[in-house]
């Protein structure tokens, strides 16, 4: 899924009875960057919030590229932040 900066999206896994282990990943300029992957184990009734962040990385002497990475955010902190952001889509 391609998303817009500042927007939120969601994926409803539990309504499909898909509890278990999930890996959330983002494409990044550094394809082996450790923090572009987040692993989450979910059971019925649990929720998880993962924030996608970016960091500019120098490439050569004059160019920069965005490097994307993921970070799990505690639900108590993420809920109010997500409620303020426009919804982009999901399932």
> First CA to last CA: what distance?
11 Å
Rg, alpha carbons = 15 Å
Number of strands: 6
* Mean pLDDT rating: 77
What portion of residues belong to β-strands? over 45%
* H-E string: EEEEEHE
| Strand-pairing-aware structural class | mainly beta
Largest sheet: 2 strands, parallel
Oligomer: single chain
* Tally of DSSP helical segments: 1
User: Largest beta sheet: what is the strand line-up?
Assistant: 1-6
- In the predicted model, the low-confidence regions spanning at least 5 consecutive residues are none
Globally, the shape reads: globular
How many separate domains make up the residues?
Answer: 1
Give the helix level as a range of percent. 10-25%
Q: Can you characterise this structure?
A:
With 91 residues, the protein is mainly beta. It has one domain (8-90). It contains 1 helix and 6 strands. The strands form 3 sheets. The chain has a two-stranded parallel sheet with strand order 1-6. It has a two-stranded antiparallel ribbon with strand order 2-3. A hairpin with a 3-residue loop joins β4 (49-59) and β5 (63-73). The chain is globular, with a radius of gyration of 15 Å.
């Amino acid at each position: 899924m391609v998303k817009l900066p500042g927007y939120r999206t969601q994926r409803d896994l539990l309504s499909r009875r898909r509890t278990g282990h999930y890996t959330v990943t983002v494409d990044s300029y550094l394809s082996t960057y450790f923090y572009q992957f987040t692993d989450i184990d979910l059971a019925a009734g649990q929720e998880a919030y993962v924030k996608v962040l970016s960091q500019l990385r120098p490439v050569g002497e004059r160019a920069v590229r965005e490097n994307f990475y993921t970070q799990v955010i505690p639900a108590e902190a993420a809920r109010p932040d997500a409620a303020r952001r426009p919804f982009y889509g999901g399932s």
